[in-house]
């Protein structure tokens, strides 16, 4: 009996060593998003007529196609920068001061949090687990299937002087407005917020000292 127990423990340890530990089962994989659909939608004046902040969300998931379209509308690459930078970086659907492109869009969902990589149109894993409730101080934030968290990477703001703080907020606001217009066009609910426990969320998202959370924005279906 004792020998059998030892062998069971031994087998379990071996499996854990081979699999790299219990965390592997919960590890997130990168998500390759479908190509964004960059045509269609409501005419811009109609979308502007519908733009509004929502604070009530159904739990219904967004499809991968909608998520891809949303992220492209928010902060995707919409043209080449060949003439400006010699190529490689791409230019975005939102402007940014000095073209720093310092905003990273974190995508916080039930299964885990990712960061949007516009170049590869993919989501890179950040941390597994449901941190939606940490993306704001209001109760509804845990209900939306997706919350986008805008994070300024200040290491990208080269030669920024005293106005850098203002610039990173302005840059995030342009991305947020793109999300508002996309949501209005698609009949989705959205709402931006500044009321966030930045320390708690920054720890959960494993941010570095150079990274600062500006705004967060829920996206989902209206309740
Ligand atoms: C920079 C900024 C921060 C905001 N922060 C919050 C917030 O923390 N919580 C919230 O419920 N709404 C927040 N809002 C949404 C505003 O309250 C909302 O835009 C305003 O009431 C006007 O409503 P509308 O967007 O539907 O026109 C914020 C909006 C902006 C632009």
Descriptive notes:
This protein has 223 residues and is an alpha+beta fold. The protein has a single domain (28-220), classed as NADH Oxidase (3-Layer(aba) Sandwich), CATH 3.40.109. Helices cover 32% and strands 22% of the residues. It has six helices and nine strands. It has a seven-stranded antiparallel beta sheet, sandwiched between helices. The chain is globular, with a radius of gyration of 20 Å. Bound molecules: flavin mononucleotide (FMN). The site of flavin mononucleotide has 9 residues, from strand 8.
Can you lay out the helices and strands and say which pair or pack?
Elements: H1 2-19, E1 31-32, H2 44-50, H3 64-75, E2 77-79, H4 82-85, E3 91-92, E4 103-108, E5 112-117, E6 122-128, E7 146-153, H5 164-186, E8 189-193, H6 198-204, E9 211-220
Antiparallel strand pairs: 1-6, 2-3, 4-5, 4-7, 5-6, 7-9, 8-9
Helix pairs in contact: 2-5, 3-5
């Amino acid at each position: 009996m004792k020998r059998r127990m030892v062998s069971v423990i031994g087998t379990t340890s071996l499996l854990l060593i081979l699999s790299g530990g219990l965390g592997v089962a919960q590890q997130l994989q990168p998500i390759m998003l479908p190509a964004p659909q960059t045509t269609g939608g409501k005419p811009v004046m109609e979308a502007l007529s519908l733009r509004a902040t929502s604070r009530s969300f159904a739990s219904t998931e967004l499809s991968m196609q909608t998520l891809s379209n949303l992220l492209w509308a928010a902060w995707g690459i919409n043209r080449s920068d060949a003439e400006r930078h010699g190529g490689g970086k791409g230019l975005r659907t939102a402007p940014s001061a000095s073209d720093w492109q310092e905003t990273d869009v974190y995508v916080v969902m039930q299964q885990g949090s990712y960061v949007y990589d516009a170049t590869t149109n993919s989501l890179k894993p950040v941390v597994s687990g449901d941190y939606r409730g940490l993306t704001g101080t209001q109760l509804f934030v845990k209900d939306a299937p997706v919350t986008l968290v805008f994070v300024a990477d200040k290491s990208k703001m080269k030669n920024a002087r005293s106005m850098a703080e203002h610039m990173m907020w302005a840059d995030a606001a342009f991305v947020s407005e793109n999300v508002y217009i996309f949501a209005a066009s698609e009949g989705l609910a959205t709402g931006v917020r500044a009321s966030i426990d930045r320390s708690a969320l920054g720890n959960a998202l494993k941010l570095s000292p150079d990274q600062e959370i500006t705004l967060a924005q829920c996206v989902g279906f209206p309740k």
